[in-house]
Automatic annotation (TrEMBL):
Domain of life of the native organism: Eukaryota
Domain CRAL-TRIO residues, every copy: 161-257
UniProt protein name: CRAL-TRIO domain-containing protein
GO CC terms in record: membrane
GO terms for MF: phosphatidylinositol bisphosphate binding
Organism of this sequence: Cryptotermes secundus
Secretion signal, residue range per the UniProt entry: none
CDD domains assigned: SEC14
Amino acid sequence: MPSELLKPPSKEILERVRGEFGLNEERVREAVEHLKDWIQLQPHLPKEIIADDGRLERWLIRCKNSTERVKGTLDLHYTLKTKLPDAMTGWDTHADWFKSISSSIFCIPMSQLTPDYDRVILFGLQTSDTTHYNALNAIKLCNMIMEIRISEDYCLSDVYVVDLEKYSLGHVRQVTIPLIRKFEICVLGGYNFRIKAIHILNAPPYADVLISMIKLVFKSKIAERIHVHGSDLTTFLDRVPKESLPKEYGGECGSISDNWDGWAKKLENYHDIFLKREKYRSDESKRHGCSINDSELLGFEGSFRKLELD
């Protein structure tokens, strides 16, 4: 398995990613201090993030150097833990659900950035057997990966690769529009990960319904970044460099099984951090103004709809 799943950013990466948004070390420090002051003034938000400059900087990068967007994203992130606990809490890597889903799927941020400083995220099934597959638990596991990435990753945007080779009708039937909305609001809203492209590989004919639902839920500019490939990966490999792919796709970044073994262990090593962080959530009884209801979240209505997601 790769010795470092998420390598600490080099000086070159720091300068390139920060420079993309007009940032340098001094401006990052000023923005982070401003965000800390703002968090202190929010009675409904937990204060744990104040001690973590690294996570605040990564949210600043994801929000393109807009402190106002970071504020909205942080508010949404902690609100989701209160309002969507089935997806954003219960991240116990010792629990049966985790053992089942981690043996059924893989969600791998590849260790090597692309030449454009993007992170390739590979998602697929380890087996076509649906026995241990649960779509909600798959989203929960993906959110756990995102939590690690907001702590350790440093890149410009994400390139998602979804391999449907082992997907059956039994898997597809579990995916509903409300479930896709949960995934969208958690990843694009609560973590503000920026999607550069989504490549869908080995799509069977019955996957058309699934792809249509994804395009329906995602904003049009994200839907336009979805590229569907058959079993011929020629056009896919023209867009995604082999240096950032596993050997199963002709890449140079190890095997899927070795990469996922490493990530499964990394998730287990985060066990105590996950359980500690899930306690930090919004206290809606202390929020100034009206509390946020569930329909506002899943419908992107109200104040959170104003977040500009990319």
